[in-house]
Design a protein that fits this description.
The longest helix is centred in the middle third of the chain and has 30 residues, at 129-158. The protein has helices at residues 3-28, 30-36, 41-44, 46-65, 71-90, 95-123, 129-158, 160-181, 196-200, 203-223, 226-232, 238-262, 267-283, 285-288, 292-319, 326-354, 360-388. 83% of the residues lie in helices and 0% in strands. It has a single domain (3-388), classed as Up-down Bundle (Growth Hormone, Chain: A).
Length: 389
């Protein structure tokens, strides 16, 4: 790739960093937000589930609505609106205002994750597409290493509202950089609604969507409540929780690198391995909590596997979609993945409320192992059939 290609991808990676940081900031600040508004952690957790529901419901209609826009202009408007909503979050005086501002952020999220990967792969030569995708996912991993823990530190020291304000400031800086460096990326034309049933009836894409929903549900059953789990069950100190979250995100970079190295050579074997890793980590979460080093190591493997799964599914959806429907296919992927986030967060909240927060790993593992069986018995066979054809 050229130096200019690298600069453009770095800008998109920074955008992915701030969007992913913003999405998961409530996880790291859940206890503080709950205390500030005098509510339970499960109630505060609705910030995560409502956000995910909005993304799920609006990803497809919003993407169809703006599918004719030139993609550079669309991306810049999305980032600008995102920054404004972060400032509004920082000014929230009540939980209702915070929720409304988060809904605004969710609307920008719905479009951003539908277009950022297609833009990235169109900026580089075809042989560099796996690298471009891995860099975008690296931005999400860096958010887990620095964004989420740093946001938590800021929240603990000077208040959670300042965390949202800092994200907004970073968003405006990223907007300025991309406005300068990003070239025009023409739309491939609007996506007519009458083509949607054909896209949804594609058996391979349908299988990938169901798999992404199931794994997202399993993952967020546990991950949405990882901060209180580490505090209440693993009995880690605040500093160790922050360190664990940083390691969790840091291993996502390893997962991204593993994708670049192993996925092009054996994509289906790679996906089988990482799905089993996600399921296994969830199943061992409570057992590992008996040892601080054990639970930290488990979170490291868990973070690596989930990042690798996410980027692999994005690659599969892009590769199996018609050229004129890539952004719409990704919007469906984003919506369904966020449906999994919402359902998983709700299941995790129910487990915390009616059973025990210590059981969230077992609940997630049951869903993840069912997803593995679906992958092995249904999706994998469809993919191999298409490959032979």
């Amino acid at each position: 790739m050229t130096f200019r290609n690298w600069g453009q991808l770095i800008g998109l990676t920074c955008a992915a960093f701030i969007f992913n940081t913003s999405e998961f900031i409530p996880i790291g600040l859940l206890t503080d937000i709950a205390q500030d508004f005098d509510m339970t952690e499960a109630h505060a957790g609705t910030l995560i589930s409502v956000y995910a529901w909005v993304v799920m419901l609006l990803s497809l209609p919003l993407m169809i609505l703006v599918s004719k826009w030139e993609m550079r202009r669309l991306l810049l408007w999305v980032i600008l609106l995102f920054g404004v909503c972060q400032v509004l979050s920082s000014l929230s005086e009540g939980f209702g205002m915070l929720m409304l501002s988060r809904i605004g952020v969710a609307c920008t999220h719905a479009i951003f994750w539908s277009i950022v990967s297609p833009i990235a792969v169109r900026l580089v030569p075809e042989r560099c597409r796996p690298l471009a995708l891995s860099l975008i996912v690296t931005g999400t991993s860096v958010a887990m290493i620095f964004g989420l823990p740093l946001g938590r530190v800021i929240g603990l020291q000077i208040g959670w509202r300042m965390t949202f304000l800092c994200v907004g400031i970073f968003a405006f800086a990223t907007f300025a950089y991309l406005a300068f460096s990003l070239p025009k990326v023409p739309s491939r034309g609007g996506f007519p609604l009458h083509k949607l049933p054909t896209l949804l009836k594609n058996p391979v894409l349908a299988g990938l969507y169901i798999l992404s929903f199931a794994i997202a549900t399993a993952y967020y059953t546990g991950y949405s409540y990882i901060e209180p789990f580490l505090k209440q069950v693993a009995h880690l100190t605040d500093s160790r929780i922050t360190m664990t979250l940083m390691i969790f995100g840091g291993m996502g970079i390893i997962g991204s690198m593993a994708f670049s190295k192993f996925y092009p050579k054996a994509p289906y074997r790679f996906l089988t391995t990482i799905i089993l890793c996600v399921a296994g980590c969830l199943g061992l979460l409570q057992v590992a909590s008996n040892s601080s080093s054990g639970v930290i190591l488990l979170c490291a493997v868990w973070g690596m596997a989930m990042t690798a799964f996410n980027v692999s599914l994005q690659a599969e959806v892009i590769n199996k979609s018609p050229l004129d429907a890539t952004s719409v296919s990704m919007s469906i992927f984003s919506g369904i993945f966020n449906l999994g986030i919402a359902i998983g967060t709700s299941i995790g909240g129910a487990v915390c409320t009616y059973l025990s927060i210590a059981e969230i790993g077992y609940a997630g593992a049951a869903i993840a192992f069912a997803a593995f069986l679906y992958w092995d018995r249904v999706v994998l066979r469809k993919l191999k059939k298409v490959h032979r054809t």
